[in-house]
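Repro:
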Amino acid sequence: MLVIKLGGSLYHSNYLAAWMSNLAAVQLTKIVLVPGGGPFADQVRTAEHTYPLQDTHSHAMALMAMQQFAWLLASLSDIFQPVSAIDAIHNYQGRHIIWLPYDTIMQQCDYPQNWQTTSDSLACWLAQKLDAEKLVLIKSQAVQQHEFDLRQHSGLLDDYFPQASTNYRGQISLYHASQSELVCEQISDE
């Protein structure tokens, strides 16, 4: 099983459709997409400038933003099935899943409920819970190398990621948003 986090910043790029198309063509492994928050999370940040939101409320709203982005991804490819519960992901007979994180995170995750924890750390949490072999994080910012090295990529990931990744035993890789063909070729070759 492979967990791939598609950063919300891909919403504003020309790469998002290519990712959905290329990933839909992969047949050899179960793929679980974790959505970023994108412009939906930006609206939560905007609301924080206008209203005195509690961190836990902003966190819940940011999870809903991820959920909205998940539905947008589902509309780009009818190959991917939106699924929320971890058991349902394990039991799903198909190979292409988009995770709806809200209920599972609100009920089961004990990570800090503030902006230190974003979809990066939540993708790692899910990868650990699923015992996924790999976690792939797709970013719009420049990535120096594909293999994960926290010292080189700390500015690209949320503040909680170092702690979130300590118990994950799988491989972590980072790729730029433009590298969908490369990632999908590597997945297909394994």
